[in-house]
């Protein structure tokens, strides 16, 4: 795991030289290189390895996905969105570089990330590059992460009551798109680079869906049970905002139970596909909350 | 000209169905389909035709460039940027849909636009699609339009004095990237789709650079000489903000002279390359200010 993180951090640094105008490149790099778990790029590299690919081939794509993730954080934290001052224990992008710059840094990352793939993965050939681009736009955009964010914002207006039949479906939609779509992007591009079959792609997509939702449930749980020091960001805001979260809708006990069932499902998918990965086992076990 | 506009408007409408979550798709479409001159998509189609290509092949790319243009308008108008309430005579995106949604609509357009190209231009083949993607990211991102916007914002802090030797270079940088880069994107992708030679690409790039800067100088001039009714947006803000503009730096007379010289250069480029285009002649003559 640490080898992967080291490799990704080194490559992120290399892929992001500070060009003119420096302010925009500095602000893009600031959030991308905040110390983090690098979960999404690790997933991309490890999936590529698991399906017999060369992880070198997946490095630009893995790093691009981390940049895309940073983009969502920068815009999410802005005053007109979640209005967060801290992220990973550091000041958020707009607190350091100003709002206008944070807005543009996020925009720039959305085009810089796929550019990194195109510039540094020419050896994959045009056909595969087009496939990776298609995945990237489908998961990053209005049908993916952004759709999840829009419904997430809308859901703040809801009163969370247990008898509203629509809420479980809406919550599932938010988790699927806001969180699981980036996981699926990482896994599917890793698999595509390794020439996985369509069947393997389907299996890894199901894995990403379960892991993504599990990850978001864990995040919802930690929001009520953890502290600022442990998480590096302001907590308890979900409840305060009356937000539609797994914990607010189902309570803490059922949330933990469902979380662990989803993780079991992930282990099952690995097993039934004869996929061995200590890395994914570690990640899944870290998400588990007992 | 009107045939082109009709075609583009029809295709923009087709390419943008209102999917779930409706709010984001409605807000994306709102700004994209505001009545406009459709200059950039027309340039893309006309360049493709001029170099012997089939304009049908360029329609998705032309429409994507209009979407990208709309994205820059949405984010530019936001309170943390130019804080504009009107655009093309209508309320700006955030005034209608709220700031959070406008932020996300802009983000969504940045990925939706290249997605439209990939989904609807499969007949161009993967090699050409990769080339178009490369052009798109290079001109739209941190090396292109966004670089221009960042320096533009920075320039608001400058005191515009005639003896500052750096200012002409900075202003040229802003105009080159903030405005001419999108023109060059439209022209170059049109040419690439028509299989133009490298030499032809260079010539059309020079044309786009001259036309883009001319267009921006004209915009700077109209900001001080025109009215809200004529332009559909709040004017005189550049002077108020002490902004670095062509008129503030060189005065009205020299601005008009340089504008018309750039337009003459554009006509020369068409002539020396034996390119005949009533459309480009009309566009250039419309930019001219006597």
Largest interface: A-B, 49 and 49 residues
Distance between the termini of chain A: 23 Å
Largest β sheet strand count, sense and barrel closure of chain A: 2 strands, antiparallel
Rg of chain A computed from alpha carbons, rounded to a whole number of angstroms: 18 Å
Helix-strand category of chain A: mainly alpha
What does this structure look like?
2 copies of one chain form a homodimer. With 290 residues, chain A is mostly helical. Chain A has one domain (2-287): Farnesyl Diphosphate Synthase (Orthogonal Bundle), CATH 1.10.600. Chain A has 15 helices and 2 strands. In chain A, strands 1-2 form a two-stranded antiparallel sheet. In chain A, a hairpin with a 2-residue loop joins strand 1 and strand 2 (90-91). In chain A, helix 3 packs antiparallel against helix 4, helix 3 (39-50) crosses helix 9 (167-193) and helix 8 (145-155) packs antiparallel against helix 9 (167-193). The longest helix of chain A is centred in the C-terminal third of the chain and has 28 residues, at 198-225. Chain A is globular and about 55 Å long. The two termini of chain A are 23 Å apart. The model of chain A has no long low-confidence stretch (mean pLDDT 93). At the A-B interface, helix 2, helix 6, helix 7 and helix 8 of A face helix 2, helix 6, helix 7 and helix 8 of B.
